[in-house]
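Data availability excerpt. The first of two example chains:
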Amino acid sequence: GPPLGSRSRGRAAKEGDRSRYRCRGVAPKSRFGETVVTVTFNDLGESTEVVLKHDLFPSSEAAEGHRQGWTSVPSKFEARFAR
């Protein structure tokens, strides 16, 4: 299917149940440097909790724009994997 979100280039490091990505956006509007995305997967028995943290934004406006984007991800995942 189509991509779920914006494109970025970066490096990833896996630490147990946690993955950390250093990202630099490639879209013209994302030219504000490197940010860090940390995704943690917590085993809750019959389900898994996914905790996402995105840091190192240069401004509150940049952080808010990404917050809005990230909050749309769960419904996109549900739609993609419900098939």
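And the second chain:
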Amino acid sequence: MIAPNVRMRMPKFSMGRSKAFAPVSVFVLGTLLPAIATACPMCFSGNPRIRAAFFSTTVLLSLLPLGMIGCGLVWLHRTGKLSFRDEFIESDELPKAPAPAQASTTQE
């Protein structure tokens, strides 16, 4: 015998609490997390040489991707210019090929 069509009963979850909980939890974590996550003591050292080293490293690592993108664009421009140099020259403007040399006959 085939079992009758029985609807499975799914538990009902209230979405009201979870919708209200998400923004509150994001706000609380956003305000408390920076206070918990302190940087290492070396980053904010009183020594000016260490602070200058961290600052210069930050500048270097910020500009490095821009420099790589710029070098890639320059490389693409140069290789594209070389490979497409003669692409748009009309065929009637091309120099004519030299006539083939006549075969010389030697008499003995």
